[in-house]
Design goal:
The chain is mainly beta. Among the domains are: 89 residues, Sandwich (Immunoglobulin-like), CATH 2.60.40; 109 residues, no CATH class. A hairpin with a 4-residue loop joins strand 34 and strand 35. Helix 8 runs antiparallel to helix 10. It is globular. The relative contact order is 0.11. Its main location: membrane. It is a multi-pass membrane protein. It is found in: Cell outer membrane.
Length: 1087
């Protein structure tokens, strides 16, 4: 009987202890509101304070102003604070379990903008408030672009972040953007910034040896695996002293993306849907079949002097005879086909996202799932994406906290087999039928794809509709990124340690297939039933350990923060590829299917890559009198991509801030000057090569001494140096009139030293034909200006207006003597431009001839000297203008293109080539107002612009050259036809003459202003929403890319001008899918 008795006593004692513990851990709930408008105060800090005014624990209010805090001692007090309000302090909590607080606005409140300014800046180092930051940064709240219909967030950012230029590569679904922060800093043109997601590096590089078919680093969107709806904000780091914090991948700048996390409060479920329709801009007006049929005989007559009928019954002639007695040619070549229209359609977008967030004192969570479907405006293109994300925060104790993040993405991207499908559609013979007519004149369902026609064979003149519908190129992506973080306060509020580890597992597959039906070629042709499969796997593990020291001083005059960080990163990649041709059937698209003719059999490829890097960072920031701030940092990087001599690099930085407005002599200005600061920074940031190894090998196709052998593929270079960007920055911050006006200005100078270039051609006497070298120095100078204003703010109305502009100047300072100074193109042949690397000129400059019009008659072709007098030959004969004498010695005729004879020698050659332009915009930026009424109706309008750059309109060149059997634009209707005609359009001339040399005739000013987005949203009143048993309901109507003001004659002036790995490339418009006008209807419901 004793056992039950003692057991009862034990249970009673346990219950008593539990009750005491529960009593000692009272939960207090409440709501914080604004006294002036009774609205919830979001993000207010609620802390438990003991008798010594020490903080015991604390929480923040959620979006409804609610909080819940576990109190350790009921004799303690609650302290509630928020920027812009007076601090509230309660009496002893006692037995209270509900405390509602009304905060009174502070008389010295700095207002709404100051709340934003008080947030910390995500730089990768110390968590410093924006007010005390010494860095050159720009931040965008993702709410500003949440209603835009985009597949990746970079597509919504053009013009919104000062000093950052976003250039489009294509309007196809999933196409990427080129991103340039303060210009192009590398001679290879590959200068995209480092991406950081939730505090850890995010891999965006595609393995160099992986074959994506028509995709490449630019064409495959870097941020496609990050759902825009999960993003909270984006910060760009621009100055070298700050980018150095992130190490060897950050020399081109850093784009930091923070995703949403849970907050204290009851679960909030949000569903968002966006449905869109996309329409391409008006196409280039092209010749009809009838007009084309008149052009071609004229071309032939001008070139040969005989009519096209001279060819008799050849296929070339039959295509224009329209003889009913020959039904094949009559029906299949007597059409008015709009090929561009056939491969163009209206696109559609569906974007669904559902999320849940909430949490209590110990745990907070955010989880989302999304589905995105985009049917592209070019036939055959589409994108499907499934995303899911979970972010968890858990507080174990006052000292220990955990964070766990998990992201999964599945992507299927349908592309055209040929990226030039629209260019072919522009040039395809319009009198041809897309479908085959039989001998009775009946249209069949078979594509009309003759093996050969007067335009040539498959490779350049395929049936674009057949290629769009039947050719296949698909990209499949699976990516999972788990991340785990531990935060431990070794000494609360003094010494904190953090540890983060992230695994990034990414698999990308590409499958392409070109069926016989899309080519018209016989089944034995090498291009028929061509199948490729490529599989690329990458695995990346990154870790970061931080020690953060923030000592407390007896005086408020001094503030010090210090950081030590050790970071590691390991990247592994492997790719496998197989290609086969002539598979047994167009329905058997696997390359393992045996070939009908076994021309080459299977072509197998594989690559592997491994790289490691480590970084050790030290950073400290000291503040004195809240006016003088100095920050020092130094980072040592080690990277396996270098040889042993220069594997490690040290990159220092120093920056500072002087708060002028805090000086005693500025006291009289406090009524209208809220903040006036001057910032400076100086630092260096290193950049490693792109490949995984500094020395590589490959197997031979034949044996040596009866054994298999391998040979080195490159010269081992142990002394290659780090490419280093040394940057200087001077910043200026001004806030006026209670935050109604905020002005940020930056002046910078960045110098890239020891520019790295892979694959420089060298003499083969070394045993190799290429070498990697450090080749020179490049400068990027410029300035940036951002203006944020609140012209109107009343109880009902708020009007904001933002504006930013940036100017970048690029120039080459020095080039190695081993590096070529010009492109391999000699005197430009038809359609080509010459590129030079000239010291003092911008990277990406190109050169050619000056187009002066058309020779109207024979007299106009007479060569003239500097005085304008005719040039007379040694025998007294009249000299007429020639091209490239004596190598070519073509004599210009009436109706030919006229080029400026710069040196007046009567000969158009390389001596007459001049600078024509470059693709570096002089100014980039954006501006627009946001108007809200009673917080329920909101209208935002945003314009973006790029000014002062030139591109080659290759589409116009191809459709106005009148040189072969290609269709041409309607502009050629004004062509020269007879002596005396005054026009700028040369004569039609089949396969003769030099009417489309690389000249300024095709170089156009691509400057533009674009109405990028107009969005109007309406949030229903709470009374209405409650009747629907919802917590919120908002509708929005959005238009994107609505109007573009430009002198450019093509469909889209916003082409990729960032360059490529070829330093002699120049920006060109080759008729890729243009940006579309997109109209979106969206709804967001909260439950």
């Amino acid at each position: 009987m004793k056992t039950p008795f003692y057991t009862s006593i034990f249970l009673v004692l346990c219950s008593f202890l539990l009750l005491r513990s529960a009593a000692a851990q009272t939960i207090v709930q409440g709501r914080i509101t604004d006294k002036s408008d009774k609205q919830a105060v979001i993000g207010a800090t609620v802390i438990e304070q003991d008798k010594d005014k020490r903080t015991v624990t604390g929480v923040s209010t959620d979006i409804n102003g609610n909080f819940a805090i576990r109190i350790s001692n009921t004799n303690n007090k609650l302290v509630v604070s928020s920027i812009g309000y007076k601090t509230f302090t309660s009496g002893p909590i006692g037995k209270q379990t509900t405390i509602n607080v009304v905060l009174e606005p502070s008389a010295s409140s700095l207002g709404e903008v100051n709340i934003t300014a008080s947030k910390t800046v995500s730089t990768g180092g110390l968590n410093i408030s924006k007010r005390n930051s010494t860095a050159a940064t720009a931040t965008l709240n993702a709410k500003d672009v949440e209603d835009l219909a985009v597949s990746s967030i970079d597509q919504a950012l053009q013009g919104r972040l000062s000093g950052v230029d976003f250039g489009t590569t294509s309007g196809d679904p999933g196409a990427g953007m080129s991103i340039r922060i303060r210009g192009t800093s590398s001679i290879t043109g590959n200068a995209n910034p480092m991406i950081v997601l939730d505090g850890m590096p995010y891999e965006t590089e595609i393995p160099a040896d992986f074959n994506f078919g028509t995709a490449d680093d630019q064409g495959y969107a870097q941020l496609l695996n990050i759902a825009p709806s999960d993003i909270k904000d984006i910060t760009v780091l621009k100055d070298a002293a700050t980018t150095a914090l992130w190490g060897s991948r950050a020399a081109n700048g850093v784009l930091i993306i923070n995703t949403k996390r849970g907050t204290i409060g009851k679960p909030v479920i949000t569903y968002n849907f966006k449905g869109s329709v996309s329409v391409q801009p008006n196409p280039i007006p092209l010749l009809s079949g009838d007009q084309y049929s008149m052009l071609i005989p004229e071309e032939f007559m001008n070139a040969t002097g005989v009519p096209l009928d001279f060819l008799g019954n050849s296929g070339q002639n039959k295509a224009f005879q329209y003889d009913p007695s020959d039904p094949f040619y009559y029906y299949n070549y007597s059409n008015n086909t709009d090929w561009a229209g056939l491969v163009t359609r209206n696109g559609t977008i569906q974007d669904h996202n559902m999320s849940i967030s909430g949490g209590g004192e110990k745990a907070r969570y955010y989880a989302s799932v999304g589905y995105y479907n985009n049917l592209g405006t070019t036939v055959g293109t589409a994108l499907n994406r499934l995303t899911s994300k979970i972010n968890l925060d858990y507080i174990v104790s006052e000292k220990l906290r955990f964070r766990t993040d998990l992201t999964y993405t599945h992507v299927v991207n349908n592309l055209n087999y040929s990226s030039g499908i629209r260019d072919i559609a522009f040039r395809k013979m319009p009198n041809m039928s897309p479908y085959l007519y039989d001998e009775y004149g009946t249209l069949t369902s078979a594509y009309f794809s003759p093996e050969s026609n007067i335009q040539g064979k498959y490779s350049s003149t395929y049936n674009p509709l057949a290629m769009a519908n039947e050719g296949s190129s698909k990209l499949y992506g699976e990516r999972i990124t788990p991340k785990f973080s531990v935060i431990y306060d070794v000494i609360p509020n003094v010494l904190q340690s953090t540890f983060d580890v992230q695994f990034d597992i990414n698999n990308t597959k590409s499958k392409t297939f070109l069926p016989q039906i899309a080519t018209g070629r016989p089944s034995t042709d090498v291009n028929v039933n061509r199948a490729t499969d490529n599989d690329g796997d990458s695995y990346n593990i990154a870790s970061k350990f931080n020690l953060i020291y923030t000592p407390r001083f007896n005086s408020d005059k001094h503030q010090l923060s210090a950081l030590m960080s050790f970071q590691t990163n390991e990247s592994r990649s492997a790719s496998y590829g197989v290609t086969s041709t002539n598979t047994a059937s167009s329905y058997l698209q696997d390359p393992s299917v045996p070939s009908l003719v076994n021309i080459d059999g299977l072509n197998l490829q594989s690559t592997q890559g491994l790289s490691r890097d480590i970084g050790l960072l030290a950073q400290a920031q000291y503040e004195y009198l809240d006016r003088y701030i100095i920050s020092l940092n130094a980072r040592m990087d080690g990277n396996s991509k270098f040889g042993p001599d220069n594997r490690y690099g040290i990159f220092p930085g120093i920056s500072g801030r002087w708060r002028v407005s805090g000086e005693p002599f500025m006291k009289k200005t406090t009524k209208f000057i809220d903040e006036l600061s001057v910032r400076f920074s100086y630092g260096a940031s290193g950049k490693a090569p792109g490949g995984s190894y500094f020395n590589t090998y490959k197997p031979l196709d034949w044996s040596y001494a009866g054994r298999a052998a391998i040979v080195p593929t490159n010269m081992e270079l142990s002394s290659l140096k780090w490419e280093t960007v040394v940057g200087k920055n001077l910043g200026f911050n001004l806030v006026l009139l209670k935050n109604r006006i905020t002005l940020d200005a930056e002046i910078y100078q960045n110098t890239t030293k020891d520019m790295y270039y892979p694959g420089l051609n060298i003499s083969t006497v070394t045993g190799f034909n290429k070498i990697d070298m450090n080749v020179g120095t490049m400068d990027n100078d410029g300035w940036e200006l951002s203006l944020y204003t609140v012209p109107l703010k009343t109880k009902d109305w708020t009007v904001n207006f933002d504006f930013n502009i940036a100017r970048n100047t690029n120039s080459m300072r020095s080039i190695s003597d081993f590096y070529p100074r010009e492109s391999s193109v000699g005197v430009p042949a038809q359609g080509n431009y010459k590129s030079y690397l000239i010291l003092g000129n911008p990277f990406g400059s190109y050169y050619g001839f000056k187009f002066k019009g058309v020779y109207k008659d024979k007299a106009a072709t007479v060569a003239r000297d500097q005085d304008g007098k005719p040039i007379i030959g040694p025998n007294g004969q009249t000299i007429y203008m020639r091209y490239n004498y004596p190598q070519v010695d073509y004599v210009f005729q009436p109706g030919d293109a006229m080029y400026e004879d710069v040196n007046k020698d009567g000969n158009i050659d390389y001596m007459d080539m001049v600078y024509l332009g470059n693709g570096v915009p002089k100014f980039v930026g954006g501006f627009g107002p946001t108007i809200s009424y009673k917080g329920g109706i909101k209208l935002s309008v945003f314009f973006s612009y790029r000014l002062g750059y030139q591109i080659v309109n290759l589409a116009r060149m191809n459709t106005t050259r009148m040189y072969n059997w290609d269709n041409q634009s309607a502009a050629v209707l004004s062509r020269w036809r007879k002596p005396g005609d005054i026009t700028n359009m040369p004569r039609a001339l089949y396969n003769e003459g030099y009417n489309w040399l690389g000249s300024d005739r095709y170089v156009e000013d691509a400057s533009f202003y674009r109405l990028s987005a107009v969005n109007i949203s309406y949030s229903l009143k709470n009374s209405v929403v409650k009747r629907l048993r919802l917590s919120s309901l908002r509708f929005n109507l959005t238009g994107q890319n609505l109007f573009t003001w430009t002198k450019y004659t093509g469909q889209n002036p916003d082409v990729n001008t960032a360059g490529s790995s070829n330093p002699f490339s120049y920006p060109k418009d080759n008729a890729l899918t243009p940006l579309s006008r997109t109209f979106t209807l969206g709804v967001t419901a909260g439950f």
